[in-house]
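Researcher: For the annotation table, I need C-alpha cells for 6-phosphogluconolactonase. Please keep the output clean. Sequence:
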Amino acid sequence: MTAGAGADARAHGARLVVVHPDAGVLAEAVAARLLTRILDIQSVRTPVHVVLTGGTVGIRSLAAIAAHPVRDAVDWTGVHLWWGDERFLPTGDPERNETQAREALLDHLPTLPPHNVHVMPAPGDGVGTPEESAALYADELSRFTPDGGAHLAFDVLLLGMGPDGHVASLFPGNAALDTDGATTGVHDSPKPPPERVSLTFSAIQAAQEVWVVAAGAEKAPAVASALAGDPVTTTPAAGAVGTQRTLWLVDLAASQHHALSR
C-alpha cells in the first residue's frame, strides 16, 4: 500500500491506518483527502452526505478545507453536512461543534445552501432535553434514508477520538452505548458539558466510510486498544467501522503504542 508524502500507511485487520508526522500535517491531509473523496463521488452521483466532527484536529481540518485551492471545485449545492454529536448548548454557543464549524468552514462556502446543513437542535430552539433533540435529528435523518433502509448510509463519517477512547459522544460505560435507533441523548458525560446529543453505533456503522482522526501521545493507548478490537464498553472507538472502508488517520505521536509503533 502507498501513502501520501510523509505518511506511513499500514493495514490493521479490516482497517487502514495512515500515520502523518504531526497534527498540522494530519489536518491538512484530512482536508485534501475529504475534498478528493467528495469530488470522486460527485463525478458519478449526487448528493453527497458527510458527517463532520469537532475537536482540535477536526476543526483544524475544516479550516484547512476552507483555505484549500480545490475547495471551489466541489459543487457544494450537492453536499449535505451532518454532525456525529453536539453539545446540548444554545445556538451560537462557542462550545458547540456547529458554531466552530461555521467559523472554520461553513461561513466560507457561499454556495452551500443553508438547508443542506443539518444541525442538531439546540435548547431554546423548540427542544428542552437532549432526548427531544435526538428525536428530531432522527426524524431529519429519516427524510434522507432510502425506502427500506434502516439508516442513512453516509458517504464519509468523520470522528475524533478522546484519550478515553470515546467517539462522537459515546463514552466508556455510559448508558448511551446501548441505545437503539439512530440518535441518543447523553447525560453524565465525563467531559463537559454533561448533556449532549449523539449518533449511535448503529448509525455510525451504516456509513460507507468511517474516518477516525486522532493526534497526540495521550491518544496512543486508546488508538491501540481500538485497533486491537477491545470491547466498545471500555473503548467505544473500537465500534467505529464503516460498511466499505474504515480509516484511522493519526499522527506519529498517537501511533506510538505496541503494534502501531515504527
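Researcher: And a one-line annotation?
Model: The CA atoms of residues 210 and 246 lie 5 Å apart.
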